[in-house]
Amino acid sequence: MASLAQMHRTGPHKKNRKSRNPLNGNPFAKGVVLKTLIRKPKKPNSANRKCVLTRLSNGKEMIAYVPGIGHNLQEHNIVLVRVGRVKDCPGVKLKCVRGKFDLSHVVKQKQ
Fold first, then answer.
1. Gene3D superfamilies annotated for this entry (predicted)?
2. Which CATH architecture has domain 22-99?
3. Which of 1, 32, 44, 64 could be stapled to 94 by a disulfide with Cβ–Cβ 3.0 to 4.6 Å?
4. Is the CB of residue 81 less than 8 Å from the CB of residue 95?
């Protein structure tokens, strides 16, 4: 057992926790759409979540969720993705930013 003087000298134990950020600490990343996907959510929910498989500027290939109703994304489009997971879709840890690069703003619905 360490003496009080030794414990005072070394200070408290701090555990280094691994970051859960999929972009290595960056808030945004640019990516190229490889494929548009439709994902089904986990058990109590039922819908078709519009997602895209993107190759990011850091070399990773990840699935990003496209928020809002309707989108214009196709293969080879450029998108900006941010960190933000979709709770009911396993493996989807990124969201696309609307109105940046090739992804348009959400079109207002007619009454």
1. Nucleic acid-binding proteins
2. Beta Barrel (2.40)
3. 64
4. yes
Q: What are phi and psi for residue 23, nearest 5 degrees?
A: -105, 25
Residue the block writes with tokens 């090739």: 102
C-alpha 96/C-alpha 81 separation (Å) is 4
The domain spans of the chain are 22-99
H helical segments located in 1-111: 4-10
Residue at 94: amino acid letter: L
Segment 37-93, tens digit of pLDDT: 999 999 999 999 999 999 999 999 999 999 999 999 999 999 999 999 999 999 999
As given in the structure block, the two tokens for residue 60 are 């990773």
Distance, CA of 2 to CA of 10 (rounded, Å): 10
Query: Which pLDDT tens digit goes with each residue over 9-46?
Result: 999 999 999 988 999 889 999 999 999 999 999 999 99
Residue type, 105: H
